[in-house]
Amino acid sequence: MSDLPRSEPSIEDIILSAAHHVRPSRDLRPRTIEAARKHCQDRRSEQTLGGLVLAIMLLLLLTNSPVSQYSEQLRARREIPRAAEIERLALQYSHDRQVGAHFALSEAFNRLRLSQAVRFGQPMQKRAWAANQLSRH
Asked: Minimal CA–CA distance to 116: which of 107, 105, 127?
């Protein structure tokens, strides 16, 4: 097949013959360098933004549970029982146990302190003792 004469030039021949006629413009190199710089800056910006988003997500993930626990503790600390509630508990205790109002009021305060000890995280020994005291009453 290679012995047959060719009527059309090959692609390689066309490219080689065009090499003498095609000249790059004077601003081709600066435009190429500027395009490469812009591309690198865009990639760097995307990587920085991705890293920032990842850092924020990790920060939210790590702080979510401690923040919610802390806010729960703050909310529990603000929920101080009102005098009317303590009085109602004392009257109920006085009625249920058939004891005097003074003793019932004292017992209502004791229960309140025990429940706060459990809620506000006393050491395990005190917490177990307080839970035991609450369950007995």
From this structure: 127
